[in-house]
Amino acid sequence: MDRIKHAFASKHNLLNTYFTAGYPSLHDTIPLAKALVEAGADILEIGMPFSDPLADGPIIQGSSSVALANGMNLPVLFEQLKGLRAAVPETPVLLMGYLNPVMQFGVEEFCRQAAAVGVDGLILPDLPLDEYEEFYQETFQKYGLNAVFLITPQTSEERIRRLDSLTEAFLYLVSGPGTTGGTTQPDAEIQAKYFERIAALNLRNPRLIGFGIADKAGFDRACQHAEGAIIGSALIRALEDVADAPAEAARFVRSIKAA
Amino acid sequence: MTTSYKQPTTRGYYGQFGGAFVPEMLFPNVEELRTQYLEIMADPAFQAELQGLLRDYVGRPTPLFEAKRLSAKYNTRIFLKREDLCHTGAHKINNTVGQILLAKRLGKTRIIAETGAGQHGVATATVCALMGLPCVVYMGAIDMERQAPNVARMRLLGAEVRRATSGSQTLKDATNEAIRDWIANPVDTHYIIGSVVGPHPYPDLVARLQAVISEEMRKQLLEKTGSELPDFVVACVGGGSNAAGAFYHFLDEPEVRLVAVEAAGHGVHSGHSAATSVLGKPGIIHGSKTLLMQDEHGQITEPYSLSAGLDYPGIGPLHAYLGEVGRAEFIAITDEEALAAVAELSRLEGIIPALETAHALAALGQLGAGPDDVVVVNLSGRGDKDLETYLKNMDKLI
Questions:
Q1: Per-residue pLDDT reduced to its tens digit, A146-161
Q2: Which of A5, A55, A47 has its CA nearest to residue A235?
Q3: Is residue A146 a contact partner of residue A92, using CB atoms and an 8 Å limit?
Q4: What is this structure's pTM?
Q5: How far is CA A238 from CA A57, A232, A242, A251, in A?
Q6: Residue in A28, A42, A45, A248 annotated catalytic
Q7: Which domains does chain A have, with CATH numbers?
Q8: φ and ψ of B120, to 5 deg
Q9: How many C-beta atoms lie closer than 10 Å to residue A9's C-beta?
Q10: What is the ipTM of this complex?
Q11: Coiled-coil region(s) at which residues (chain B) (predicted)?
Q12: Residues of chain B positioned with their CB less than 8 A from the CB of A130
């Protein structure tokens, strides 16, 4: 059984943590991954920094700028990730980023190297569904990489079912309108109705809720409606200006996962 | 059947360029527009309202002026399409008038826009005031400094100007912020993009709304020269909306040479340039696959031009395609050459052009046009907004 399927089959209330590769320091990638998993993170999403991250709010934009200034790029990241599976043998790992750096690296070569270092899936928010099916799906599958798609409150049922049919990992439920790290709380009732509507579709894939989830209360609330949740911006914010980023990351995860 | 350069494929492609590379959060917005824009624009009631506003509010048709002293200097026959005489001082309002009518028909109650030099922001704020809709304009912090009068104009017109402080703090970043606003406000808001860039259907939508420029040129040329077709059409290109409008009805007339003029900044290979057709490689920016200035790792780089309207790191996918297949020729003009053209047009014809427009004028000496050739330059905007820049460079202008 692959790592993603195994994680969803064997655990409940999964915590998927996102961090930007190369932030706060260039070589934090593997130590952060190890610390997050040891503290209880169930899935890792490693951000590939991009100069113009359209779906991200100011916190991930900021971490991306710092990471790029630190010298992060795809060749450096893949070099670092050669140590990934020694550090986190069982945990599903996804690379998240924007299409342009992947295109310039070469899609096939990107997939080949990602698979070689033990990456399980890819989240490329600006890769449209039609393009994915026509030009990318075959290559992703050849290298055993799962594409993860986003669903929003505006996504039609027909489109949700199509997205559900195209992945074997999980569906990423965007919690409400806005970019990552949003601070305005969407109307709880409207949000609950949206999550219930999706739950009632009896989709093939498990669901994780992301965007705007910052603490234990938010995580617990999300877990009532899905198999787990994704936290990114709040973790990045916790790592700002700290002396020991891995220790701080572990502390953050324990605060979310505390009984 | 001959193929037309005008019409992208149903998925918005011009050759390999175009498409709609948007996050899922934007898919419904873009899809709503894509499925409705052609039908709405074909509606006679929409057209009647649009044509009425273009005539009575924008001041169309704009004149086609034969610039005799400029013609004598370059030993060819030069006409200026006076988009600088449009309400608000540039061609930008052709697009915003059309898009605000479209937004109303889509039931939208709030308008957002990005702006570089401020001309598109002013044109958007203007039509929002006219229609009584709230308007938020995103503008790079650096552009707000160098185009302060336009910031004041937008505010006077009732728009809220929001400072884009990410990245290079110019047009690219203002566009990112506008797109993020649209993601956060997916239902009530229409995004009036200012150029032939962004995800499909924007490049086609904006080109169609700017096409009135070349539609008028053909009629006016027939009247003044006996032929609808000139030998050259010259326009500056940042994202490329005025060029798209000036080229549109000549795209499928192969005998008309289309010349797109980019900003070379300090020089194409100086490291301070915005000459995307030379320095760009295919990539994705703002939801569109096009030529894009980027580093070897696909990070978008900061373009440079003295003119705030031309320092965009991409070009519209239509222009990328026209360049690739050789339908349009690209010329790059430096800051210095553009400033010289400002002085030249001011002295020879009594018209102070915008700095962006001056790039097109500066290409006149490089066309190879002969005495019997007819050259049309799209005079996309007037120079009032650039007075501060001109004052700082007075030594080069007098």
A1: 999 999 999 999 999 9
A2: A47
A3: no
A4: 0.96
A5: 16, 10, 8, 9
A6: A45
A7: 3-257 (3.20.20.70)
A8: -70, -35
A9: 9
A10: 0.94
A11: none
A12: 11
